[in-house]
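[job 0412] stage=complex_fold ligand=zinc ion status=START
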Amino acid sequence: MIVPIELLPPKPVKYDITIDALPKLSFDTKVVVVTNPTVAGFHLDTLLQNLEAKALHVVTVPDGEQYKTLQTVEQILDECFEHKLDRKSLLIAFGGGVIGDMTGFTASLYQRGIDFIQIPTTLLSQVDASVGGKTGVNNKYGKNLIGAFYQPKAVYIDPAFLETLPKREFAAGVAEIVKMAVMFDREYFDFLKTADLRDEAQLKEAIRRSVELKAWVVNQDEKEAGIRAVLNYGHTFGHVVENETDYTTYLHGEAVAIGMVMANALAVELGLMEPQEAQEVKAVLEKYALPTDYVIEDIDDFYEHFFLDKKSANNSIKFILPEGIGNHKIVKDLDETAVKRVLAQFGASR
Ligand SMILES: NC(=O)c1ccc[n+]([C@@H]2O[C@H](COP(=O)([O-])OP(=O)(O)OC[C@H]3O[C@@H](n4cnc5c(N)ncnc54)[C@H](O)[C@@H]3O)[C@@H](O)[C@H]2O)c1
Ligand SMILES: [Zn+2]
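[job 0412] stage=complex_fold status=DONE, emitting structure tokens
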């Protein structure tokens, strides 16, 4: 199945996201595959069996979010020069979101931009990171603060790669799937309530629906001037949780799961959501063994953390909240005491 991306003028772009077994790919240009040892160990043979090119090289970078840096990008660039890539050459990102974000960013830089293709191998990157053309790296000031909007030429999503994914990583991807459903599609949420995503056909269906929703959002708002911000549901709270725990306790998707529970509590407080609906979301997250509880030790400190997030421009926090299940509402300039009252529900003395 194919989901098209069609960005509108002034910079029209069109490409396909294919969700299926990886097809044979043939290029009459030089190709560099960027991957890491973990992904290569499991799946590089499969990829290479399906790939033909004028010249083919594999660049392996260390595995881990801590290597999503300019330094690693420079390593990839160096290897591109070593292999004498030209402006017609192609990069292929073969891995999770870390590899995808870095490879896309490198492609945007090499000789002012060469083509790249995404072949995502984690659930999170298949339903989220590989769709929409956000690329970049982290630095000491924060995550994803350096980067570019740079669209791939194609995305190939093969759910079979997920068979080797650790359970926690799989669940982290489910968190982003639940996010899409709660924000945009009640019927999809109901599907997730009863679905078994370990079943191949149901998993493929969930990936398709998530990619379609994300593509629909990106097609309207590539640069996050409006509706694309809705994809940050659960992230405003989740980022604080990740930050408070030094990015070591929770995977990103796990922190987002906790963040959605917190956002839902705020939505209930504001009368946007019924307690029963918040409970439904929590139950779906727990069905996939995602964490839904977190103890806030210092409520004032947690609150201050909101302002460190790059998305809270001009010192006003923008909360992305559900309105029931399947609809969203962006709420700004909330009263501090109301927000803190909700945070107190997660406080140590509750
Ligand atoms: N560009 C975007 O729009 C966007 C959206 C969401 C997240 N992101 C970024 O994506 C990154 C997170 O992506 P992620 O969750 O895929 O993490 P990741 O890329 O670190 O992958 C998670 C782990 O799974 C391993 N792995 C990958 N594929 C595997 C497989 N098939 N079998 C076994 N192990 C496998 C990886 O080597 C890694 O250890 C973050 O850096 C985040 O900022 C980007
Ligand atoms: Zn996320």
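The pocket of zinc ion (ligand 2) is lined by residues 176, 235, 252, 256 (CB under 6 Å).
[job 0412] exit 0
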